[in-house]
Write a structure and sequence with these properties.
- The complex is a heterodimer of chains A (115) and B (113).
- In chain A, 0% of the residues lie in helices and 50% in strands.
- Chain A contains no helices and eleven strands.
- In chain A, the strands form two sheets. In chain A, strands 2, 4, 5, 6, 9, 10 and 11 form a seven-stranded mixed sheet that branches.
- In chain A, β9 and β10 (104-106) form a beta hairpin.
- The termini of chain A are far apart.
- Chain B is globular, with a radius of gyration of 13 Å.
- Chain B has strands at 4-7, 10-14, 19-25, 32-38, 44-51, 56-59, 62-67, 72-77, 86-93, 102-103, 107-112.
- Chain B starts with a strand and ends with a strand.
- Chain B is built from no helices and eleven strands.
- The chains are: A mainly beta (115), B mainly beta (113).
- The interface between A and B is medium-sized, with 30 and 25 residues.
């Protein structure tokens, strides 16, 4: 069964360093998303991406964050200068169409720890 | 802003019992509602998707219902098993949210053998 794949599963980084989280969405999907879940809190939307551009972003997704689809398969989230409060589980998701009428599939997540 | 609440926050039941998890949302104008399962430290596994025009969806021992007018959804799990132990999340997409889901805080389910 097709699945969303994320790497690495766990990343430890020092505060102020740049990190890139990687995702391979389901191959025929057109919409891609990043969500995050701080320990003990709700899963929160960060950004959605379609047709090689950001379609929506939340207040969390400030200038420190960027997304890219560098080739036909990967979808990345970059955090330029990590802060302690960026420590969270980051989930990539994809859907065939907009979430308003289709199922979204999530990856297993990348646990980011900023020290 | 859409607010999604799940009650109870935690539930412990003996194996074999039927159970109901609740999800409520503040804006009834939703596009769809999706139930997920999350194992500790793991990702989100999609269980059921209910479109706004539907009243329920079934998959195996799981049945999800949707009542848009009252802003509620329930996930019914029949004949619970220890392997069902996990956190169950509901998420809604709505006109207020654009192309994103709003998630609830989850119900942590423990099925005791």
């Amino acid at each position: 069964e097709p699945e969303v794949t994320q790497t690495p599963s766990h990343q430890v980084t020092q505060m102020g360093q740049e990190v890139i989280l990687r995702c391979v969405p389901i191959s025929n999907h057109l919409y891609f998303y990043w969500y995050r879940q701080i320990l003990g809190q709700k899963v929160e939307f960060l950004v959605s991406f379609y047709n090689n551009e950001i379609s929506e972003k939340s207040e969390i997704f400030d200038d420190q964050f960027s997304v890219e689809r560098p080739d036909g398969s990967n979808f990345t989230l970059k955090i330029r200068s990590t802060k302690l409060e960026d420590s969270a589980m980051y989930f990539c998701a994809s859907s065939l169409a907009r979430t308003l009428n289709t199922e979204a599939f999530f990856g297993q997540g990348t646990r980011l720890t900023v020290v | 802003k859409q607010e999604v609440t799940q009650i109870p926050a935690a539930l412990s039941v003996p194996e074999g019992e039927n159970l109901v998890l609740n999800c409520s949302f503040t804006d009834s104008a939703i596009y769809n509602l999706q139930w997920f399962r999350q194992d500790p430290g793991k990702g989100l596994t999609s269980l059921l998707l209910i479109q706004s025009s539907q009243r329920e969806q079934t998959s195996g021992r799981l049945n999800a219902s949707l009542d848009k007018s009252s802003g509620r959804s329930t996930l019914y799990i029949a004949a619970s098993q220890p392997g069902d132990s996990a956190t169950y999340l509901c998420a809604v997409s709505s006109p207020l949210a654009g192309n994103q889901f709003y998630f609830g805080t989850g119900t942590s389910l423990t099925v005791i053998p």
